[in-house]
Structures are given as structure tokens and as C-alpha cells.
Amino acid sequence: MANYQQQKQKVLQLFKPAKTLAEGQKNIEIKQSLEEVEKRLIEEKLFVVVCGEFKQGKSSLMNALLNEPELFPVDVDITTNLVSSITYGETEKITVVLGESGKEQSQEIQRAEIPNYVTEQHNKGNFHQAKMLILQSPNPQLKEGLVLVDTPGVGSLNVEHTAVTYAFIPNADAIIFVSDALAPLSAKELDFITERIVPYCQNLIFVVTKIDAVGNYENIIASNQEKLAQLLKRPDSEISIIPVSSSLKLDYLKSQETEDLEDSNFQQLENELWGLISQQRGKILLIKALTELGRAVNEIKAPIQVEWETYQQQSKQELEKSERQLQATKERLASLQENNADWLTQLSYGLQDIRKQSIHQFDIGFDKVHHKANEYLDDNRLLKNPTEIASLLEGDINGLMSNLGKLLTQETAELYTNIESASKLNLNPLQIDDLEWEKAAISLPNGKNKRTGLFEKSVVIVRNIGFTATPGAMIGQFLGGIAGAAIGTLFGGVGAGPGMVIGQTLGGSLAGLAGAKLGFDQSVSQIKDKDRREVSKFILPYIKQSQMLCRKVLDDAIVDLEQSIREELRNQIKREKNNCDRTLRSLQEARQRSQAQVQQRTQELQVILPQINQLQKNIQQLAQVTVTMGTVSDTKQKTEVAQPVTTVGGEKGSWADD
């Protein structure tokens, strides 16, 4: 059965013949559109965030996943609390983001310089204010867009890195939570899962490392399973915990002993990871690309098909009927371009409803922020360091704004779909058997599982990704400033349309929050008696200022969103009208050709049309496989083990296995 990696390559292979057809028909507009969709699929990133306590084997786990034994070294003392990430690049490039919140700088460094920023020995007390290490690597395991992000240890979360950490968690496609076989999950780890992960990301994989170091790791897994079942309010049987040995996987990379690979259990982890990604965003990305590809091929085919049919000895009455139908479609699309078109009113009223819903959720969210603030103020440990309270609140607010971004994505995608349907625009060029959708049991991103037929399911799912900014862009915007620019650029993703507006506008809230927190930090540093009463005098105004800022950001996002959707729909209407014009012209020109010209052109079409039909068939077949990709039966399939690759850079670095 196919997984995301395999399907992505198959989808990309279809773009070359489609672009060749567009070029052959001298349709530069469609060719450019195909190039943009292809680029977007190539550059899309799938974010997997690795969380866990210090010294649980996270770095070894990442080395084993990437088939690079020495990429993240594990043999030195504890590091500073640095967020480390690795993404694909043609050549190795290492960037460090450092400086105080809102004033970060991005600096390119060499591998040998890494210890100067990430180790306690060379950067005691994080003197350089290092926030994040971004590593681009030519590692083939990352080529399909996988980004691994290693966050600071659960129990030692440096408050200065809270903003970076919580920019990633709400936008993760999946989270791997790592603990080891030496001890069961602690209360601190369980609190982190409850408070900092579950509210924002439910795509969780629990991993227990170092199973080769103990003989009774099954007892630890059973204990963790029981605790997580209570925590997540799910039956024990639904809590999947994967035991692995990174050292055995790394041994396999050196020895090629299959027994080491089997005992490491990394195949199960890799299957689970790619299966989860396939079920979630990976599937949506592929369906989106296939839908756009299908639409482009349909547009290429329409003028050719009507020309072919014109030559098939149709009667004059039949040809005139076809011409009238095309003319009526052209006039209908022209009416949609008018400033008083009904869809504009539908858009305005729809966004008013979305705005009310968003503000309601915003108010509920900030009520929860106030409640959390009281909890933090009741914690004597936190009172001794009030900046940590502000950092935790900053994370809570960032998570709230991320969730509001997702709400806007879901609701505007559905509104867009309704407008398309009412306007009779070309929504779904894929012909997928409805039974395939039932097999896939796809839950829509807003929690609904519509079973009203293929059309509604496919369109809403496809539209959702069309409205979603790439995580890299979202994270980059949330961080703001130079740090955000570095992350947004390096993690890439082309992004498009309304989704980019949501990411950019809502994401801008964190840059303002960073400034508000900086003012708070400077004020609170002057407090001598750090008791609840004194600290609350600064906390409550900080929340109020943040709430005002975020409310303005939300209002601006909806205003910008209306403009973006309007432009997106106008472009779609224009595209369909242009294609209708081409098709109508093709019919009219075909009717004027001489017998000799018809004979020559018929021979040409007998070559072109089968190529188009075969391409359409390939797209439809691939779409059918894609919608069932990542189901339970699929994830249980064994995948071929990737061969070990040469260590990036050829040198052993020196930051710790945190």
C-alpha cells in the first residue's frame, strides 16, 4: 500500500506530461498554473515536533530516524534550552537565531561553531540568548518535506524559548512524545501533555526509548498506557506506545544485521509516523495537487474535445445547440464578474457570521487565559520568577490565536465552497468512486464527517488546504521580526490565497505580544517583594494589553480575508470564462475549416486526445488510491528500509542528547 512519500512522487510525475500538453496547445497560462502547483507540492513541509524531558534519548531517536548516526551528537553535558530543527536543503546550511524577544538576529554559522551557542560549556547561562538552531541538510529522509523539530526539555523549559516552542506545537502535523524505559511518565510530563500539547495538536505518537537497557520495559509501557488512558479519557487499547531502541537501529546502519533492525522496532515507528501524516495533512496536500492538476487537464481538453466532436459528422442543429450552450455559460460567467453579483452578498453575510463566531471563541479563549493566570499566580515557584508566568501566558495566547486561525480556515473554506456551488463554478474535476471516500472515512478538519456524497466531501477537504497557510509561513509570522523571517524562509512553502492572509495577519500577533512581554519583563524586574498581590498588578495589565492587540489582529484578519477571498473567486471566474472562450472559439473555427483541413486536424487529434484521456485516467486512479492512503490497514504494511547515508558534514558535532 502507498504512503505519503510514494504517492507524492507519483503525483509529481504527472506534472511533466500535463505541462507538455499545455505547451503544445500554446496555453501559457495553464502551464504557469501547473508550475505553481507543482512547486507548492515540492516545497510543502510536514512538521513533526519531538517533545520530552531531558536525557530521554531524543537526539539519538532523531539520528536513527534520519539514518545518520552522528548528526545530533549525544556524548556531552547538558545543553542550553535550544530549539533545534532540521529540514531538507541541497547543501548543508546552519543558522542560529539569537537575541531578546522582538529583537532577534539570524546568523549563519559553520558546524564547528555550533557548541558556541548550544552547549552550557561554551554558552553558560545562554549568554548569547540563542533561541533556535536551524539545520538544512541534503539528507534523503527529509526530501519529501519532513521537518523534525526538537524542543527544549519538558522539565527545564527556558522561559526565553517559550515563544519559539509554542509557535511550533499548535502548527505541528504530528508530535512525537519521547520518554525512556528507565522510569514511567512523571507528573511533570503528564502535565505538559495535558496543558501544552493536547489543546493544540491531537496527532500524538508516544515513544519509549532505551528498551535495550532494561529487561522489563513492558511494565513501564503498561504503566504509561494506564496513565495516558486516564489523562486522555480513552481506553487503554487505544493508547499506542511504541518501544524502540535507537542504539540497535544505529548498530544496524553500521552492520546491516537485519536482526538489529527488527529488535530496534523502528519500522513500527516509521510506519506509524508516515501513516499518521498520510491520514492527516499529507493526504490533503496530495488531493489538493491532484485536484488542481485535474482541473488544468480538463481545461486543456475542453477545446480539443469540442473540436473533435465537431468533426464527427454532427448535424448543423447539434453544433448550433452546443454553441448556444457555450455562449450561455460565457454569459453566466460574465454576469458573475459584475459588481452586483449575488456571490458578493453571500460572501459579505457569510463573513459576518464567521466574525461573530470567531469573536465568541476569542472571548471564551481569553476567559481561559485569565483562569490560567490565576493558577500561575497561585504557584509559589512561579511567583519567584514572574517572567515565567508571562512566558506561559504568552504561550497560552499564541495557542489561542493558532486555534482561531484554524477556525477561520475551516469556516471560510466551507463558505468558499458554498459560494462556488451556488455560482455553478467548476468545483471537482476528479471522478472518484464514492465508495472509496467511505473506505477512507475522512473526517473533515472542523470535526465534521459529512456523508452527503463525494462532491461535498472532496470539495471541502480540498478547499481546506487551499485556505491553509504553510506551517513554515504561519510559524515565521507568529515569531515576527528577523527570527520569523529566518524560519519562514528556511522552512519554505509557497502558500497561496486566503490561507496566506490568515497566516500572515494572525501570525503578526506574536510580534506584538513579544513587545508587550518585553515591557512586562522590564517592569517586573523592579519588584522587590514578589508576592501574588504585587505580581498580579503587572500580570493583569499585560493580559489586557495582549487581549486588545489580539482582538485588533483578529478583526484585521477578517477584513483582509474578505478581500483575499473576493480576489480568489474573481480569478477563478476569470479562469473559467477564459476557458469557455477558448472552447467556444475552437468550435467556431472548426466549423469554418475546409475538408482537407479537417482531415489533417483529425489525424492530429487522434494522437493528442488519447494522451489526454490516459493522463486523466492516471490522475483519477491516483486520486482513488490517495483518498484511502494512511488507513489502518495501510499503516500496518511493512515499508522498505532506507539505506544508511553518509553523515552530513563528515564531522561529529558537540551538542547534547537532551
Terminal residue distance: 36 Å
Total beta strand runs:
9
Instruction: Report the major sheet.
Output: 9 strands, mixed
Mean pLDDT: 77
Radius of gyration: 27 Å
Shape: globular
- DSSP helical segment count: 23
| pLDDT < 50 stretches | 432-496, 632-658
Lateral strand order in the biggest sheet: 4-3-5-2-6-1-7-8-9
Secondary structural class? alpha/beta
Helical residue percent band: 55-70%
Q: How much of the sequence is in beta strands?
A: 5-15%
Short description:
With 658 residues, the chain is α/β, with parallel strands linked by helices. The protein has 23 helices and nine strands.
Give the SSE layout:
Blueprint (H helix, E strand, L loop, with lengths): L3 H10 L1 H10 L3 H16 L2 E7 L5 H8 L17 E6 L4 E6 L6 E5 L5 H4 L11 E8 L8 E5 L11 H7 L5 E7 L6 H11 L6 E6 L7 H16 L8 E3 L2 H10 L2 H7 L1 H45 L5 H21 L5 H36 L2 H4 L2 H37 L11 H7 L13 H13 L4 H9 L1 H11 L5 H28 L7 H61 L2 H33 L4 H4 L23
Parallel strand pairs: 1-6, 1-7, 2-5, 7-8, 8-9
Antiparallel strand pairs: 2-6, 3-4, 3-5
Helix pairs in contact: 1-11, 2-3, 2-11, 3-11, 4-9, 6-15, 6-18, 9-10, 11-17, 11-21, 11-22, 12-21, 13-15, 13-21, 15-17, 15-20, 15-21, 18-19, 18-20, 20-21
